[in-house]
Amino acid sequence: MIEPVIVVVILLALIAIGAPIFLALGAAGLTGLYMARGSMAFFFGPTSLFGQLNSFELLALPLFVLMGNLLAATPVGKNLFHAAVVWLQWLRGGLAIATVGASTVFGAVSGVSIAGVAAVGSIAIPEMLQRGYSRSLAAGSVVSSGALAMLIPPSVPLIIYGAVSNVSVADLFIGGIVPGLALAFALCVYIYIRALLHPEEAPLQAVVDYSWGDRFRAIGGIWHALILIAVVLGTIYSGFATPSEAAAFGALGAFVIAAVIFRSLDGKGLLKVLGSSVRISGAILLIMGCARIFGDYLNLVRVPDAISGLLVGTDLPPELILLLIMLVLVGLGMLVDAVSLIVVTTPILLPLITALGYDPLWFGIILVMNLEIAVITPPVGLNLYTLRAVAPVLKIEEIIRSVVPFVGVQFVMLMIFVLFPALTLWLPNLLR
User: The whole model's pTM is what?
Assistant: First the structure.
C-alpha cells in the first residue's frame, strides 16, 4: 500500500510549491489511477470529472453565487446594518451585536462568507471605531459573524457537500437553520457579556429614542431582501421547487432588486457582477471535478474503508473518534480552502461516520461548522484578508488576534452539536 502514500506526498508537495489546488488534486489523482490501472487512468479521469459536475442540483451553486453578488452590489448590506442598529442600539455592545444580526441576514441572501464580511464590514468597522469600540471587538465581531453565511441557507458549502455525498440539499438547508441561528445567538451573548465585563471596549452612547415608526422605516430598506429570502427558502422547504429552480428565481429576484428597485446596477456593473460570479463558480466547480478524480482513486484502492475499519476496530468511544476527527478538520481548515476540504475529506470520512451510526446529513452540518472556524483562522482564513481589504485602518495582526475568543465560542458550539446530534436533526425530521 505504498502507492497511496506516494499520491498523498505528490498532493502535499504540489500544494507546498504553490500549485493551484485543482491542479494538485487532479495531478495526484491521475498519478494514483495510472499506478493502479495503467493507461486506463486517462479514461477514468475525465469520466470522474464529468460525473461530478453532471448534476442538476449543482446548478444551484452558480445561481446562488450570482444572487449574492447581485445583492452585494446594492445598499442591502448598509440597510441591514442600519436596521439592526435602530433595533439593538440600546444594548451594551449593541453595534457589535447589530453587526452579527446584519451578517446573519446577509448570509441568508449571499451564501458566501467573504461577501458578508465585505458588505457589512465596510460599514460596521468605521461606525464602531467612531463610537469608541475597541478595535479587537469590532474586527472580531465582523470576521466571525461573516462566516455564518457558510451555514445559514442558502449555503454554497452545503450545496457542495450535497453534491459529493448525495444528501438532499433541501434537507441540508433545513438542517443548517438551527445551528446557524444558535451560533449567531452565542456570538451575541459573548459580545454582550464581554461588553458588560469590559465596558471600555463598548462605550454606551447616549441612547437615541427611536420611535416605532423609525424602526419600521428601517425595515423598509431591507424588506425586498427579506421577502426574497422567504420566497426562495419557502419554495425549497415546501417542496414546491428544487434548490436549483429556487436559485434561478432568487437570481432573477436579486436582479430586479438591484436594477429596478435600488437602481444600483448599470450595464457596466452587471458585466462586473457576471464576471465575478463566473470566476467564483468556475473555480469551485473545477476544484470539485478534480477532487472527484482524487477521491475516486482513494475509493479504488479502498483507503476510506481501511481508515474506517482501523478506527472502528480500536474500540474507542465514538465520541472520542469524533473529537479526533473535529481536531483534524480544524487543523486542515487552517491550511486548505473550504471547497477543497469538503470534496477531499467527505469521501474519506463519510464511510467512517456512517459506520459509527451517525447521519450523513448531520455530518454535513458539522463539517460546515468546522469550515466556519477555518475561514477565520490563519494562514488561509479568507475572511481575515477580506476585512483587511475593506477596512485598511485595521492591521492584519490586529484582525488575527481579535478572532481568538470568537474561535473559542465557535468551537464550544461545534462540540455541543457534535455531542448532541439530535439538536441538528430534529428540525429536518419534524418537517419530513
Answer: 0.84
